[in-house]
Amino acid sequence: MNNTLYWNNYIDLLMKELSKACYIIRYARTYLSASSLKLIYYAFFYSLKCYGIIFWRNASHSSIIFRIHKKTIRIMEGCGNRVSCRNLFKKLQILPLTSQYILSLMMFVVQNKNIFLTNNENHNLDTRQRNNLYIPQANLTIYQKGANYSGINFLVIYL
């Protein structure tokens, strides 16, 4: 049995499921109000989109998922294919894929803070950044794209 995990297989399955959710929203739009569509969005689309996002977001096909996400938002608002989604995301108060990824990474780091080292634990120097999380040195891109390394970087940058 092969123990290798292929994210592209998961992404393909995810794209199919998100397309089904998009179709459900398109079909329901003719019958339901905007608030009901938002409930359907959170039930069918959001739950799929957010599951494991910190692990698959850096996969090569994640841009296709973002396009499906924008398509779904346009359907919910009844807009054309060429309308910018920036204001639509704000209006619906829904986070775009990248923002959701950053939020999920930060929540992962904060909830699992005990598995990360602080600068104070790594060296004995009394500096201003002694309570910040220690960012390990890494040359491999695959490690730098991982949840642990990216989470620490985003937390240090945004806080």
Summarize this structure as a short list of keywords or feature phrases.
2 domains; 9 helices; elongated; 159 residues; mainly alpha; single chain
Please state the structural category.
mainly alpha
The N- to C-terminal Cα distance equals 44 Å
Shape: elongated
Number of strands: 0
- Residues in β-strands, percent: under 5%
Encode the helix/strand succession as letters: HHHHHHHHH
Largest sheet: number of strands, sense, barrel closure:
none
Mean pLDDT: 82
Q: Roughly how much helix do the residues carry, as a percent range? A: 55-70%
Count helical runs.
Answer: 9
Write the layout of secondary structure elements.
Layout: H1 7-29, H2 34-50, H3 53-56, H4 62-77, H5 86-92, H6 97-111, H7 119-122, H8 141-144, H9 147-158
